[in-house]
Known about the structure:
The complex is a heterodimer. Chain A is 79% helix and 0% strand. Chain A contains six helices and no strands. The model of chain A has no long low-confidence stretch (mean pLDDT 81). Chain B is mainly α.
Amino acid sequence: MTCQVPRMGLLAYVHGQLDREAAEATRLHLAGCAACAAEVRRLRCLSDLLTCHLGWEAAPAGLEFRVADRLHRAARWEAPRPDDPQAEWAGAGALAAASLAVVFYGAGALYPQAYAFVVNQATSLVAGLGSLAGQLAARWSALGRATSAIGTLLGWGVP
Amino acid sequence: MNRPGSGETWPAIVAEHTPGLYRLAWQMLGSRADAEDVVQETFLRAFVALEKRGLVVRTSLRAYLGRIAVNLCYDRHRRGRRQELPSGEVEEVAGLGRRESGSRDAWGESGPEQALIHGDQARELRQALGNLPPNHRAAVLLRYTYDLSYREIAAALEVPENTVATWLHRAHSALRRHLTQEEARP
């Protein structure tokens, strides 16, 4: 190690950034070189000065809590809980129903004739479905009575 | 809230890194409000990258956070958000004004004269730091405010480790020259 080369290494030595072998070599060199030893003292002095002046400012009170709170909110907003899929589906269903209702009544306000037509058609459809269900029930009942009569005639013991 | 791939929780990470990141941003920007914003944004970005996008930090979390903070500070500089310090804050930076509780007192229970001397010294130092090239200044601040190793500074600034050693060496030489000249003035 010459006294010209290691200047950059001396700062790394002061900062404790040399590996064990290089640090030991530097230490041995410093023991026999007054110029480098003086340089290390000056570097230590400057390093201490910088540490004192740049390293004292404390963070404002509560900053950690504000940061933690912000992260917590970010976690909640950006990641729906995977362990609660029913809640997600319920929310989506409610949103879809609300959207449909808004569209339906909004369309009624904008196009009253079309709205009346759709409502009439829907009412007719519901009435038709009701009538069909009534007819099916009546036919099911008649079929039951016919089966019962045939059973009586054939002596199946059906009362 | 656990950090992926480690047992460390986010509140613990925040508690550990907030002081250093705040000092770094405060020294780079000279504004408490901006420094606080940068700290919050740094953690938020790291959180989203690590938790949501599954990013794996190859070096150290400290270097990763340092890189985000430095880039955010550069962004603010570019957007022209840097403001001159109000006179009260200049006094605080110089060590003459109010101290936050728990701050490291550089000169203990020294009297007003000593504080004045140290205040002048701090002003000179701040001026000397301001004259450094941005990369050298960033390396110095990462080293002294956030206590990063050379390897971590290299990762944070995305340069080889030798480059960091060179920058720090040149920065120290420049700072020493500046302070020596100031001292020699009548």
